Amino acid sequence: MTNFKFLIFPALLTLTLSCSPQYGLKQVDRTSQERTLLGLFTIKLPQGDNWYDLNSAKNSISFRKTIESKGNTFTVSTNVKKVSKTFNSKQQFLSTVKSARIHSDVPANYNLLKHDEKIDSSLADYCTKFRLKTTQKGQQRHKKYERKIIEKHGFTCLHPKRRDLMITIQYTTESQLFYISRENLLEGENFIRSLTFR
């Protein structure tokens, strides 16, 4: 069996936390409008108000936005991983990344509702664009107003000059009745498309 360990994507363990200040989260410092990972990947800070820093490390960055809808969360994140595999084609890259995402981003207690993923070279030559939708198992159908849907949208790319490094940049929504405002979704789309390579 192919070893997918090098492709495991980080779980956003803080999905259920609030972004309110009492949880010790700091508002995004906008002294600079960009952040850099490993000196090789650059992203622009998310647009709009009420963004908080969740994590900032050498190879990963994540932010959370405070939104008014109760029970809904909105997060953007990036993570760089070392890749030990050489890809001979874009289709091989797509197949490997797509399979690994199912294993890493769909926990055992969740149902996969949708997974779209395709090659998209708008950011770099070897990139996939994905959309993943899941819901927790065991939720009663008649309680539709309590049903939570988790969606992830983003890109996974190999660095054009460092094919041993792979980055995933995404925004994640956790919402009831599929509702996240268009303004928030636009902020997420602008964030994932802000990625550039050095």
Oligomer: single chain
Q: How many helical elements?
A: 2
The major beta sheet can be summarized as: 8 strands, antiparallel
Shape: globular
Low-confidence region ranges:
1-22
- Domain count: 1
Estimate what percentage of residues fall within beta strands: 35-45%
Number of strands: 11
Strand order of the largest sheet: 1-4-5-6-10-9-8-7
Describe this structure in words.
- The chain is mainly beta and 198 residues long.
- It contains 2 helices and 11 strands, in the order ββββββαββββαβ.
- The strands form 2 sheets. The chain has an 8-stranded antiparallel beta sheet with strand order 1-4-5-6-10-9-8-7, with helices on both faces.
- The termini are far apart.
- The relative contact order is 0.21.
- This is Lipoprotein.
Question: Which properties best describe this structure?
Answer:
mainly beta; eight-stranded antiparallel sheet; disordered N terminus; 198 residues; 14% helix; Protein Transport Mog1p, Chain A; 2 helices
Summarize this entry quickly.
This is Lipoprotein. This protein has helices at 90-105, 182-192, and strands spanning 26-27, 34-37, 41-44, 51-56, 60-65, 73-82, 110-119, 127-136, 148-158, 165-176, 196-197.
